[in-house]
Design brief:
Layout: H1 2-11, E1 13-15, E2 21-24, E3 29-31, E4 34-36, E5 46-49, E6 57-62, E7 65-66, E8 79-81, E9 93-95, E10 104-110, E11 115-124, E12 130-137, E13 142-152, E14 157-161, E15 174-177, E16 183-192, E17 198-205, E18 210-217, E19 224-225, E20 231-234, E21 239-241, E22 244-245, E23 256-259, E24 267-272, E25 275-276, E26 289-291, E27 303-305, E28 314-320, E29 325-334, E30 340-346, E31 353-362, E32 367-371, E33 384-387, E34 393-401, E35 409-416, E36 421-428, H2 439-447, H3 455-464, H4 471-499, H5 504-641, H6 648-656, H7 662-672
Parallel strand pairs: 2-11, 20-29
Antiparallel strand pairs: 1-4, 3-9, 5-6, 5-10, 6-7, 8-9, 10-11, 12-13, 13-16, 14-17, 15-16, 17-18, 19-22, 21-27, 23-24, 23-28, 24-25, 26-27, 28-29, 30-31, 31-34, 32-35, 33-34, 35-36
Length: 679
């Protein structure tokens, strides 16, 4: 009979799929595995493992039940077998709520038969396609759009559609396969003015009946465009808020504004006259916002925001005043951290265990959920939320848990749906001791020699003999150990008391040596105390010296500032004195000028009077000259007739009263023949 059973086991095979199994994130999936030919494996040990995990167990079936405590924490509450199908040899594993981390190679193993099969799981996490403005096609007078989508398996196809659902002629699809076997696809299309303004990018995989699509509106005339979906950024990272002119136009010399209407001042970035207008910028964005200045000539007005903070979350306005065109972009700032579970103790009745879950550094405000080993929600106390000065949230929640059928495995999950992020932590509470396996299995394993046992066998033996102690029993054992410790201490004290007289003499000598040692130790301690005191004094002196140096430095700086101020004061006084001297000189000059003006006025008045007198004298001279001419005529006649008469005195007497010039006198004397009289 045994030989027949052994032959059947050798003939049986564990069979799995030849192709990878593809699953979508958050969906359920079945990893096929069955015995061929079919036979009842209900009483067998069944294992699903992943060699790259520690612990490697994904699901273990032993003695007609799940062995939950050996399972890797990341799979607790998410794996199960089709128990009703085990009698038919169906060992397939159902994996619920698939995660990206579930991807890998699984081993379906029947240890006692030493039969196994491998199943490769590929987790498909297709992302919605993202459409961006790639450029402008000036020849076709159209806009070049690019569409990209990642995380696909098997390889998908990418289609461009207009508003009526008609296919658009696009460039070839570029495909990239990553190390995780997932595909990333991208494609470009030129949208002309003749096309409808509503364009769709669709990525689809018909084999798994999955598709994702994104729409974009392309304006017919020149105007700004931006993303329709919110931009999500992680706190502390850099982010770009896209904003473009549909048609290429150089805006480097134009006024460009990025604002947030909910701020005061509202300006995030202002570009005017070819430069950044820093003075009008909101202080929270100084040094963190910038434009791609080299791209302004192509109509790219996108804003780069550095070291994003939670306070940066909000609606941004990209505005071009010259064209009175604007576009709004929503920014969501996310921050996450893994929760920590602490066991706070037993509740008042010691019926359950009180657990506390805390998680810090979230944004926006997250939710906290407690789950049991089957993924069911547990009733918990209200979530305590604290918002810090950095705008990040800290959350905590308490729950009282009791023993569950599938083991005391509990999960604290913190999630934020707006940014599609979640973090979770698992904890296992010791459960009631259970017997593992049955006698036949134990006997069969014992009959096998130590040399024939594999590493897996020894691991299985360890698991089957594992004892799990409940919390109450652990606490009782701790109290028992404390009592035993006290009893041992009493016995030790009594033993020392009993043997004390026997060693009294030796102890006396030892005491003397000990006293000498103590004296030396005391002296050493005194020296150490003196050294410590000296060190303290030295530290104080060094601190005082440091403070004195700092004060001297401050005084020196103050003296330099005062000296500088005094120098400036002296310079000002010198300048002031020079100014006063110049003012006095100026006043003297003004007085001299005034005096000269007065003298000039007097001279002018004298000159005027002199001119009047000269005029009068001329008038008198003319009259006298007229009389003198008549007199000369009268004198010439007798002088001519009597040239040698002796009446010279009469002639000269008259000539001395003349006022004519000498030449006239000479002319007169010559005519009278009396020239010699002039000598």
């Amino acid at each position: 009979m045994k030989n027949l059973q052994s032959q059947n086991q050798r003939a049986s095979q564990v069979v799995g799929p030849h192709q990878p199994i593809v699953a979508l994130v958050d969906n359920d999936i079945i990893l096929p595995c069955h015995m061929e030919p079919g036979e009842d494996v209900t009483a067998e040990i069944l294992e699903w493992t992943r060699s790259d995990l520690t612990p490697r167990f994904v699901h273990v079936w032993r003695a007609g039940q799940d062995l939950v405590n050996t399972r890797n924490p990341s799979y607790r509450g998410r794996t199960s077998l089709f128990i009703n199908e085990l009698k038919n040899g169906n060992i397939s594993l159902k994996l619920s709520r698939v995660k990206l981390s579930d991807e890998g190679t699984y081993q379906c193993h029947v240890p006692l038969m030493d039969k196994k099969a491998f199943v490769k799981l590929v987790v498909d996490a297709p992302t919605s396609p993202v459409i961006s403005l790639s450029g402008i096609d000036s020849n076709r007078r159209g806009v070049v759009l690019q569409c990209e989508s990642a995380g696909w398996y098997p390889e998908p196809e990418l289609l461009w559609l207009d508003a009526e659902g008609n296919l658009l002629s696009a460039g070839p699809t570029e495909t990239l396969r990553g190390p995780d076997d997932l595909y990333t696809v991208s494609s470009r299309v030129t949208v002309e003015k003749r096309h409808s303004n509503n364009i769709t990018c669709r990525v689809q995989q018909k084999n798994i009946n999955q598709s994702r699509e994104t729409h974009i509106h392309v304006p017919g005339e020149t105007q700004l465009i931006g993303p329709k979906q919110p931009i999500i950024a992680a706190a502390g990272e850099d982010v770009t808020l896209p904003c473009h002119l549909v048609q290429v136009e150089n805006v480097a010399t134009k006024t460009l504004e990025w604002t947030r209407p909910d701020l005061d001042p509202r300006f995030v970035f202002v570009w005017r006259a070819g430069q950044d207008f820093v003075n009008v910028k909101n202080p929270a964005y100084k040094g963190r916002s910038s434009l791609f200045t080299d791209e302004l000539k192509h109509g790219n007005i996108s804003l780069k925001l550095s070291k994003v903070k939670p306070a940066d979350e909000g609606r941004y306005r990209c505005y071009l005043p010259d064209k009175n065109e604007e576009v709004f972009i929503d920014l969501i700032v996310g921050a996450v951290s893994s929760p920590i579970i602490n066991l706070e103790g037993l509740d008042g009745d010691k019926v359950g265990v009180l657990l506390v879950c805390k998680s810090e550094g979230w944004h926006p405000k997250p939710e906290v959920r407690w789950l049991d080993c089957e993924g069911n929600l547990l009733p918990a106390g209200p979530t305590e939320t604290l918002r810090g000065p950095d705008d990040l949230y800290s959350v905590s929640s308490r729950v009282t848990v009791v023993e569950k059928r599938c083991g005391n495995n509990f999960t604290c999950r913190v999630e934020q749906k707006n940014i599609n992020q979640s973090r979770e932590t698992h904890i296992q509470i010791p459960a009631v001791k259970r017997e593992h396996g049955n006698e036949s299995e134990k006997q069969e394993r014992m009959n096998r020699s130590k040399n024939d046992q594999t590493e897996t066998d020894r691991e299985q033996e360890k698991l089957m003999t594992q004892d799990i102690v409940p919390v109450d029993r652990l606490m009782a054992e701790v109290e028992k150990l404390k009592e035993e410790k006290q009893q041992l201490q009493h016995l030790l004290d009594a033993k020392e008391q009993k043997h004390k007289p026997l060693f009294l003499e030796k102890n006396q000598e030892a005491d003397n040596n000990l006293k000498d040692t103590e004296e030396l130790n005391q002296q050493l301690e005194k020296k150490d105390a003196e050294i410590r005191e000296l060190k303290k004094q030295l530290d104080k002196n060094q601190e005082a010296d440091k403070k004195m140096k700092e004060e001297n430095e401050k005084l020196r700086e103050e003296l330099e500032r005062k000296s500088s101020r005094d120098k400036d004061t002296v310079k000002q006084l010198v300048k002031l004195k020079e100014t006063e001297e110049l003012n006095q000189q100026l006043k003297k000059k003004d007085a001299e000028i005034t005096e000269l003006k007065k003298q000039l006025d007097k001279n002018q008045e004298g000159e005027r009077k002199m001119k009047e007198e000269i005029g009068k004298l001329k008038f008198q001279l003319e009259r006298k000259s007229s009389r003198d001419k008549n007199t000369v005529k009268q004198l010439r006649r007798p002088a001519t007739r009597n040239p040698n008469t002796d009446n010279d005195d009469l002639i000269w007497m008259d000539l001395e009263n003349w006022s004519h010039e000498d030449n006239q006198k000479i002319s007169l004397i010559s005519n009278t023949g009396e020239e010699h009289r002039l000598k």
